[in-house]
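Why should sequence recovery work at all? Because a backbone constrains its sequence more than one might expect. Tight turns favour small or flexible residues, buried strands favour hydrophobic ones, and helices have their own preferences. The token representation captures these environments compactly. In the example below, the structure is given first.
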């Protein structure tokens, strides 16, 4: 019988005394969930919201071959694929669950024997420095990763602090041991991605340098400081790229024991003599500012060589964060699902500043984060839906700092816009909308962002939404919709702009800015301009106001949508559900429409062109594997059949989330897929962030305790919880029956007791 990754993980934990003595939450985290197929997560060592994500990379696929996109690159968005049998090395930066990628900086690989400076060919580990490995010898925990590299009989272990990756390699006896530093390696790599790299050997155990890349982020520069626990006996560099002019550096042999190197395609090696079972440790710090900053980070965060102490502290940080939500469930698998989802929800956004609070800004200058922690990795098209609303409840101070980071982005932006999708002092403009305004508005409406900074954030939101040259906004503002003949994905953009405008209006209302409220509440009704009464779907129009004749509501490509079709996207009016239902024929007809969505069959041809959607993420025609329809199961609450929301939610929870490497039905997308699970498992969901309301669903937990920053607790109890009892026949809050189908932010923040009486029969 083949042992599953989850089984190996549990067994490894049971044999690990340090993990057993820790609090009870880390033991349920399985970072291997989502590492296969569409999850695109990574299993390595990091701390909550850490700058370093030290993780194995199982292959490196070029983004394009001969100028044509290489589809295999998409499998390696996070660097790791569970089905692979080889590891090429361990790099320090990764995205969790994105459908596009970057990073993979500073890959390290230990080897024994004749020096090899090429990674070699996949499937032929002997051809390079890559190594075979087995999941039988792999352990993945929150804050810790271990694997045996079979080819050279090296045990690799790693843990991390916020800015430093800590490696520990146990070598066999050898006079020919090496540690390779690959400055060429990257995720979504291509020939010209490395703009420049530099390394400088300070002494026989310290190396510093930087890497500048032109990728998703086009001016990204990362500095490093690397320190060995043992002096190396020799070292060298090899330049794999072509340099037409080397100046007078050509007078030196820079390949052997020469203390500095610069170029585009460089790998370095550091050579040792090792005794049997000797451990060589590496502290590897990153900085957005300088090598001096990286060294200061290293000294401050790991001043000694005590690997077990750092590991225990990393796991203590995870336990502290995970303990903010304490649950019990019907079985161990659901506990693993819950705490792995909470773990995923705390991987990003990521801290982006040195220990002295300095960071590189969007203007490429050095700034100081005075009075706040600066963050990056804002995948806002995904995370505004549930991740940031979750953080606004359980991590309001951190979420407020994220908003302050967005405001700093705005201040440094030549466009004077809040971030769309930003990382490492770059705006990469990925996806659509301006959903940072939703995160801002949600914090303002719920009272977590107040005073002058709330007013300033509102004004920044309004100016962002008035940037005419951004992605069809000129047409949206003049015509009331984005025309497809002027700007593609026009329906999706119109609908998302309308929601964002509504969010701005809610923040303006809270702050008493009637002028901004009037402007944006009017714009929020623009969704109506693309609703086609004859078909009952949203439909693209041209700039003359005519609906496109060629229209198929099952198809995504060429229909005015992005990452969704008309069946899913036509339901995207989260801010005005009653009006949407009225347009679609009333509550009874609308409920029947939802029924058809969840029970229809969507042929493969209708998502064949969409790279990040597979059959695994689809239920009927409902696409849970991508974000635009994440609120849809909750829309039955606006009909006469709210029990169907409970039925659909429990079905999605059981079918789209499993404690296995292929257990996610779509990209986790920086925690959004996991945040949907967390809200839904607790029994409620933010259909329209910035409304201050959370639609009631069907909890999958037995009990939950939310430990809030204000010192209060919200206790949730699902009485008579079982696999069959999916219907909440009665809901009480602090002993009083809830006479509405939603909770408010105040209900949650005030604490108390929320009780669901579960039943196998709906009303």
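From this structural description, the recovered sequence reads:
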């Amino acid at each position: 019988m083949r042992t599953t990754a989850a089984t190996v993980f549990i067994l490894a934990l049971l044999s690990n005394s340090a993990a057993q003595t820790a609090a009870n939450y880390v033991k349920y985290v399985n970072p291997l969930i989502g590492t296969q197929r569409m999850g695109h997560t990574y299993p390595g060592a990091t701390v909550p919201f850490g700058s370093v994500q030290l993780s194995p990379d199982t292959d490196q696929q070029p983004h394009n071959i001969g100028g044509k996109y290489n589809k295999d690159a998409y499998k390696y968005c996070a660097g790791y694929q569970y089905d692979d049998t080889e590891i090429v090395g361990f790099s320090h930066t990764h995205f969790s669950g994105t459908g596009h990628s970057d990073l993979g900086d500073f890959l390290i690989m230990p080897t024994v024997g004749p020096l090899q400076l090429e990674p070699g060919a996949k499937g032929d580990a002997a051809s390079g420095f890559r190594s075979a490995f087995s999941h039988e010898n792999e352990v993945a925990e929150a804050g810790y990763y271990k694997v045996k590299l079979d080819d050279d009989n090296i045990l690799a272990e790693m843990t991390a602090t916020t800015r430093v990756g800590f490696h520990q390699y146990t070598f066999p006896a050898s006079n020919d041991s090496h540690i390779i530093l690959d400055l060429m390696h990257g995720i979504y790599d291509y020939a010209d991605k490395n703009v420049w790299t530099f390394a400088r050997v300070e002494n026989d155990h310290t190396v510093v340098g930087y890497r500048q890349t032109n990728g998703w982020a086009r001016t990204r520069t990362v500095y490093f400081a690397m320190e060995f626990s043992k002096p190396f006996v020799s070292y060298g560099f090899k330049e794999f790229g072509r340099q037409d002019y080397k100046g007078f550096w050509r007078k030196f042999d820079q390949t052997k024991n020469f203390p500095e190197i610069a170029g585009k395609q460089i790998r370095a090696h550091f050579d040792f003599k090792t005794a049997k079972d000797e451990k060589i440790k590496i502290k590897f710090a990153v900085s957005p500012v300088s090598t001096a900053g990286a060294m200061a980070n290293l000294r401050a965060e790991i001043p000694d060589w005590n690997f077990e102490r750092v590991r225990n502290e990393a796991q203590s940080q995870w336990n502290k964060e995970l303990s903010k939500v304490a649950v019990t469930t019907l079985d161990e698998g659901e506990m693993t699902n819950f705490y792995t989802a909470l773990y995923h929800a705390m991987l990003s956004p990521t801290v982006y500043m040195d220990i002295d609070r300095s960071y590189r800004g969007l203007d490429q200058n050095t700034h100081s984060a005075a009075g706040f922690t600066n963050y990056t990795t804002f995948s806002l098209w995904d995370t505004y839906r549930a991740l940031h609303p979750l953080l606004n409840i359980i991590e309001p101070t951190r979420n407020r700092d994220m908003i302050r980071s967005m405001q700093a982005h705005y201040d440094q932006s030549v466009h004077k816009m809040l971030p769309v999708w930003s990382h490492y002092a770059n705006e990469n403009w990925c996806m659509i909308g301006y959903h940072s305004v939703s995160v801002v508005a949600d914090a303002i409406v719920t009272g977590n962002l107040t005073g002058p900074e709330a007013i300033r954030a509102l004004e920044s939101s309004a100016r962002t939404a008035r940037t005419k040259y951004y992605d069809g906004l000129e047409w949206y503002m003049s015509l009331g919709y984005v025309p497809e003949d002027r700007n593609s994905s026009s329906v999706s953009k119109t609908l998302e702009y309308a929601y964002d405008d509504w969010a701005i209006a809610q923040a303006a209302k809270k702050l008493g800015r009637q002028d901004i409220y009037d402007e944006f509440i009017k714009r929020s009704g623009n969704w109506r301009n693309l609703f086609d009464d004859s078909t009952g779907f949203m439909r693209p129009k041209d700039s003359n106001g005519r609906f496109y004749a060629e229209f198929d509501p099952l198809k995504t490509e060429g229909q005015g949508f992005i990452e969704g079709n008309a069946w899913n996207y036509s339901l995207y009016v989260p801010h005005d559900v009653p009006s949407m239902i009225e347009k679609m024929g009333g509550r009874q007809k609308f409920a029947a429409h939802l029924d058809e969505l969840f029970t229809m069959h969507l042929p493969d041809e209708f998502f064949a062109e969409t790279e990040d959607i597979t059959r695994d993420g689809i239920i009927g025609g409902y696409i849970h594997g991508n974000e635009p329809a994440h609120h849809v199961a909750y829309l039955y609450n606006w009909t006469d059949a709210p029990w169907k929301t409970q039925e659909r939610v429990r079905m999605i929870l059981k079918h789209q989330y499993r404690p296995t490497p292929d257990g996610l039905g779509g990209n986790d997308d920086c925690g959004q897929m996991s945040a949907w699970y967390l809200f839904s498992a607790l029994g409620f969901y933010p259909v329209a962030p910035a409304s201050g309301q959370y639609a009631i669903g069907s909890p999958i937990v037995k009990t939950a305790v939310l430990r809030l920053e204000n010192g209060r607790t919200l206790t949730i109890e699902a009485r008579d919880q079982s696999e069959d009892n999916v219907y909440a026949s009665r809901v009480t809050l602090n002993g009083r029956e809830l006479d509405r189908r939603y909770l408010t932010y105040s209900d949650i923040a005030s604490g108390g007791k929320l009780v669901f009486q579960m039943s196998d029969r709906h009303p």
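A few observations help interpret the result. The mean pLDDT is 95.
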